[in-house]
Every structure is written in structure tokens, then in C-alpha cells.
Specification:
single chain, 149 residues, mainly alpha
């Protein structure tokens, strides 16, 4: 029974880590959607209206970010847009790794070290996923204007 518990705990933590890395690029759209939804709810839009507005705002943020990275030519602007998506993901990664490390790490110093490493890993993952999505969109011809002459 103990072995089954260890295996299931390992699988659960692995699944949780996979979810964090898979959803890293959606941290900024989630924060935007949450902010818009809470504002709409407090201004009297109702629960259904706030959910609809929040979903639209989050989706629009994600799509506009991907299109902006795909269409933008200057490297500095592309880096700024990708950084805007990577920083909230890094903050979320820090807090998740810090919370999970409290399970087995007693030293506060080592928890901070692991949390900082987790923040860097999750932030870089979000950065790379956004760049990969933008490169896919760029190679498929999105945002490219052909010159017929």
C-alpha cells in the first residue's frame, strides 16, 4: 500500500508539473480575464455577463499577443511583447514551486532557491511557447503581405 501511495503521489506531482508548463503561456490572458471579469461583476454585469466578458477579454489578449509577435518586425518590440507574457508566467511558477516545495523541503533558503529556479523555467517555457506559436503563424503566412509586382 505504501508503494502504491508513492507511485500515485509521484504521478500526481508529475501531472501537476506538466499542467504548469503546458498552461504557462496562458498566465497573462488569465490575469487579464480575471481582472476584466471582476470589474464587470462589480459594475453590475451579473455572473453570466462577467464570465462572457472575461472569456472574450482573455481570448482577445492571447490572440492579440500571438499576432503581435508574429507580425512585428523589430526584435526589441517582439522581445517586449514576449516578456509581457513571460513575466506573469514566471510569477505564477515561483508561487507554485514555492508552495509545492513546502511539502518536502524544510529549509526556507532551499525553498526560495527551488522557487526561483521554477520561476525561471516556467517563464522561459512561456517565452518559448509564445515564440513558437508566433513562428508557426508567421510561416503559415499570417500577417505577411505579398507584393504582386
Amino acid at each position: 500500500m505504501l508503494a502504491l501511495g508513492l507511485v500515485l503521489n509521484t504521478l500526481g506531482i508529475g501531472l501537476f508539473c506538466w499542467a504548469i508548463f503546458a498552461l504557462a503561456v496562458y498566465a497573462l490572458p488569465f490575469f487579464v480575464a480575471l481582472s476584466i471579469g471582476m470589474t464587470a461583476l462589480h459594475s453590475g454585469a451579473g455572473l453570466i455577463g462577467a464570465l462572457l466578458i472575461a472569456t472574450a477579454g482573455g481570448a482577445l489578449t492571447l490572440v492579440l499577443g500571438q499576432v503581435a509577435v508574429a507580425v512585428t518586425r523589430p526584435l526589441a518590440l517582439r522581445i517586449a511583447i514576449a516578456t509581457a507574457f513571460a513575466v506573469p508566467a514566471a510569477v505564477a511558477g515561483y508561487h507554485v514551486v514555492f508552495a509545492v516545495s513546502q511539502i518536502g523541503v524544510l529549509s526556507l533558503t532551499w525553498r526560495e532557491v527551488f522557487a526561483c529556479l521554477g520561476a525561471v523555467c516556467v517563464g522561459v517555457t512561456a517565452w518559448m511557447r509564445l515564440i513558437a506559436l508566433a513562428e508557426t503563424a508567421r510561416s503559415s503566412g499570417m500577417g505577411v503581405v505579398e507584393n504582386p509586382s
